[in-house]
Amino acid sequence: MISTLINQMDSAWQLFLHNSDWMAWNLFLALIPLALSVILFTLPQILGFKYKLNSFLWGVLFLVFIAFLPNAPYVLTDLIHLVANIKQHNSLWVIMLVIFPQYFLFTLIGFTAYVLSLINLVKFLKSKGWQQKYIVTAELVAHALSAIGVYLGRFLRFNSWDIITDLPNLINSLTNDLIGKRPIMTISIIFVGLTILYWVMKQISLGIMLRIKQINNQREISPT
């Protein structure tokens, strides 16, 4: 029995390390748009005239932001590996104590990066005087582009940098491989899922931000 337990623990540890390798890379890609959203949208509001990017540089970074944005919600599709991991390990404690927590944190961090990226964009647009209907339209466009990006990444195996390194094949896929009934339906499902999950996570994130702000305000006005 002890030897069986040791073997299960070793197997669980090896699985954890294996998952950590690709999860770390995918989270790195997911955090790129969040970092860019801070550079493009948040810092200008915080620092004002002290922080000003060259217009050309800002435009280039914005295009990079759009190109890498789908990497954040892409982590949701990595849940297909969860099914394979569960089939591979039939031990209940391995599934509950190792596999589920690892995938939960992975998807939570990745998708939260997506939500925060768009929240930063929304705040930036509001600071520029955009009306609410145009801001909602911008969010929906972001979801649509991300849905297309997720499909290109998951099913056609393209990466964000293929815009530069493999542009002809990417354009060919956009014009030929996405016009079929199945791709359009799949992208539509991804779009609807992203829209719903984003709205839910956005409310939670804004609620947490508001609570943190209230706590900080209470600390500032409370006597020392």
TrEMBL record:
Where is the chain membrane-spanning?
22-43, 55-72, 92-122, 134-152, 183-201
Record key words, sorted = Membrane, Transmembrane, Transmembrane helix
- InterPro entries of this UniProt entry? DUF1361
- Classify the source by domain of life: Bacteria
Give yes or no: UniProt keyword Transferase: no
One of this protein's Pfam families, by short name? DUF1361
The entry's protein name is DUF1361 domain-containing protein
* The species this protein was found in: Floridaenema fluviatile BLCC-F154
